[in-house]
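Entry 12.
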Amino acid sequence: YHRSWIERSHTVCIVMRHCDGGDLASAAWRARRRRERFPEQTLRRWLAQLLSALAYLHSERVIHRDIKCGNVFLTSPPGFEPGTSHAPTNSTNSWGDVMLGDFGLARVVDANAADDAQATSTVGTPHFMSPEMLRGAKYGFAADVWSLGCVMYELTTLRQPFTAFNMEGLRRKILTSPPAAFIQPGKEGEEDASLYGDGWRAT
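Predicted 3D structure (tokens):
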């Protein structure tokens, strides 16, 4: 955040840092096409940065409600010169930092309430919605943590944790089934197991 002002008494203008590295959804799409994986150290750094962002939001009583790869933006990697082409490799130092954006669905929680589970609207992106949101129950900060877990799963495996042919099928999977395990002998999970350590898979 740099500054903000109001124009014509009704338009709020906000100047934010320019994230010229794109977003994580595009980065994951390119990684899938190149059949490359993000380095574990890069994923750990991104997770720490996103957890820091969530900790700040929640300390201000704000639920983001739409955390997904497309709403996480990338800065340029160290040494990148504007105006030059940039196609990051899977080197640890070839990726910039991440910043959480798009607060169009965010909600401020009543600070005087007994707990943070106050929201009830079903909003956001279905693949990243928490079970309590899909059940139509009240939800709070934990819904953001669930969504962040889905983001990190996708960045690690380059596939979404829950997929289905329609909304009802997706809802059923999220409510009743765990995501595909990283270790699946003879399947894609073997690659996950060889690329990432036990600690990261347990995370």
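Annotation: The first strand starts at residue 3 and ends at 7. The longest helix spans residues 40-59.
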